[in-house]
Write a structure and sequence with these properties.
Blueprint: E1 3-5, E2 12-14, E3 16-19, H1 35-47, E4 52-54, H2 64-75, E5 84-89, H3 98-111, E6 116-124, H4 128-134, H5 137-147, E7 150-157, H6 161-168, E8 176-180, H7 191-200, E9 205-208, H8 222-229, H9 237-247, E10 251-257, H10 261-271, H11 281-295, H12 317-329, H13 334-342, H14 355-359, H15 366-377
Parallel strand pairs: 3-4, 3-10, 4-5, 5-6, 6-7, 7-8, 8-9, 9-10
Antiparallel strand pairs: 1-2
Helix pairs in contact: 1-2, 1-10, 6-7, 8-11, 12-13, 12-15
Length: 387
């Protein structure tokens, strides 16, 4: 296992980190089918050198007690002392200052943790970060650190890099930032610009979701598949995804979901050769072409410029378009539908005032697209047509 220095500390983080709560289970029966193997996977990863575990948050787990039972089992017998454990505070569910304590304590009790090494404010963006500040998130976290319940405070960010600056400047002692960063996210929320901005602030970044919830491990579009088949050397889909993250010197670790022992063995072997700058120029150009091949499946190439905002009815059209496009790109509405519902989008509240369409510099038919998104995400159909 290769390790990288964790800024501002003497600790070195493993190039591969483990996301214990797999996003790829969303849209199926949930992770309960593989819950019995979870403890074994965690231990195998730790034995292979992984020293950072992110327990995620059990939004979609039908029986969270079973999930945490496996976590407790995996961390018993001295394994807890071998790793740093991160817990997440679900910002979308926090409505009062009391919710900070409630969500932290519930997770710590379930996992039997005396202390969380990292507490992450999840899902920060231009809307949620101001609300977290108003609710006193920083003061609460400093009190929790003083009490010894958590060691360090970090955040998970998903928005344009321009809004990242306000988060970085909002607290002087952030320990880590977590960004979604796959080869599909080169310019996206917050993309390479976000990585570089965090690095300028001396903040280590963990790149999560390299497989886009497992969708980059599935059969790619025909054009993308042809490009990858011609690549020299030949690499697996997982290898391309992981190497993309490790290639960037700003990335301290790649946080991957591992559901099986076979995956654990494959990813651990790849982590043995993780190096910054490991992708040649031809490899980077290839992945750019693969990204373009995927993006051809989008309904509308909305750049999320937010010119159409604010909406009088509070509808976040750019975010809905992002989720709708992802459902079409990957021919899989499961994960976008989950986030659509979790985030509480209500395009049916649209009054059809057409202000968004009038302000859109590309003149997209936003109202009609919102109706299509609502039709796709409001039912349980597995189809994903654009019509």
């Amino acid at each position: 296992m290769k390790y990288r220095q964790f800024c501002k500390t003497e600790w070195n983080i493993s190039a591969l980190s483990l996301m214990v709560m797999p996003l790829s289970a969303i849209g199926e029966d949930g992770p309960a089918s593989s819950i019995g193997d979870l403890g074994e996977v965690i231990r195998h990863a730790i034995d292979g050198g992984v020293n950072y575990l992110d327990l995620g948050y059990p939004y979609h787990v039908k029986r969270p007690q079973d999930f945490y039972a496996q976590v407790r089992l995996a961390l018993a017998g001295g394994y807890r002392e071998k790793v740093k454990v991160a817990l997440r505070l679900p910002s979308l569910l926090i409505r009062s200052p009391r919710d900070f304590d409630r969500h932290l304590e519930e997770q710590m009790q379930q996992a039997r943790l005396k202390q969380a090494d990292f507490c992450l404010l999840e899902g920060l963006n231009r809307d949620i970060w101001p609300r977290m500040k108003e609710l006193g998130a920083i003061a609460w976290a400093e009190q929790a650190m003083w009490e010894g319940r958590i060691k360090e405070l970090g955040f998970v960010f998903h928005d344009d890099h321009q809004y990242l600056r306000s988060v970085l400047q909002g607290y002087d002692h952030w320990a880590v930032a977590v960004f979604q960063y796959s080869y599909m996210d080169y310019r996206h929320h917050p993309g390479l610009s976000g990585l570089q901005m965090a690095a300028q602030h001396g903040l280590p970044v963990i790149a999560e979701d390299p497989f886009k919830g497992g969708r980059l491990l599935k059969e790619p579009p025909e054009e993308a598949a042809a490009l990858l088949e011609e690549a020299v050397p030949q690499r697996t889909l997982a290898e391309w995804a992981l190497l993309w993250g490790w290639h960037h010197p700003e990335v301290a670790s790649v946080l991957a979901e591992i559901s099986t022992l076979q995956q654990a063995k494959e990813y651990l072997a790849l982590a043995e050769k993780a190096e910054a700058g490991m992708l040649e120029v031809k490899d980077q150009l290839l992945l750019a072409r693969v990204r373009e091949a995927y993006q051809k499946g989008r309904s509308v190439p909305c750049p999320a410029c937010y010119c159409c905002m604010p909406c009088p009815q509070g509808i976040d059209a750019p975010r809905i378009m992002e989720l709708y496009n992802e459902a079409l790109m990957f021919v899989d509405p499961g994960l976008p539908r989950f986030f659509y519902r979790l985030e509480g989008h209500r395009p049916e509240d649209c009054s059809e005032c057409l202000l968004c369409t009038e302000k859109c510099p590309r003149e997209y038919p936003i109202v009609e697209l919102l109706k299509k998104a609502e039709a796709l995400f409001s039912n349980n159909a597995s189809g994903c047509g654009a019509d």
